[in-house]
Amino acid sequence: MGDDFDAPNETKISITKKDQELHFDWCWKKMISDFKKENVIITEIGGHKDYLMSFYVDTFYNQSESRVKNSIPKFLNEIFDLFKPFSKSDLDMITELYKLLEKNVK
User: Fold this and answer.
1) Are the C-beta atoms of 97 and 51 separated by less than 8 Å?
2) Residues near 57 by Cβ (< 8 Å), separated by ≥ 6?
3) CA-based, 20 to 30 A from 40: which of 12, 14, 29, 60?
4) pLDDT tens column, 25-40
C-alpha cells in the first residue's frame, strides 16, 4: 500500500477493491480484539464499521497524496479531543460518528 505516493520514482502498485476489503476486515477484527482485551466490547458489524470503511477507502486506500494519508492519525486524535474547538460542519460529522459508536460499543 506504500508510504509515499508522491515520490516521483515510485512504482505505483494498486490493490483491488476486494483486497482493500480483506485488508480492512483484517484490521477491523484486530482492532476489535485489542479493545476486547481492555474490556471495551465493540460489535463487529454495523453502521460504525461501514462508516469507517468508507472513510478509509476514501482517505487511505484510494488516496494518491501522502500528505492526506499521513494526516489520518492526527485527525483521529483530534476528533476525540474534548478541548479542541470545532466548526459546525465538523461537529455534525463528529456527532454522527459518536452516535454510531455509542450504538455499537458495550
Assistant:
1) yes
2) 20, 24
3) 60
4) 999 999 999 999 999 9
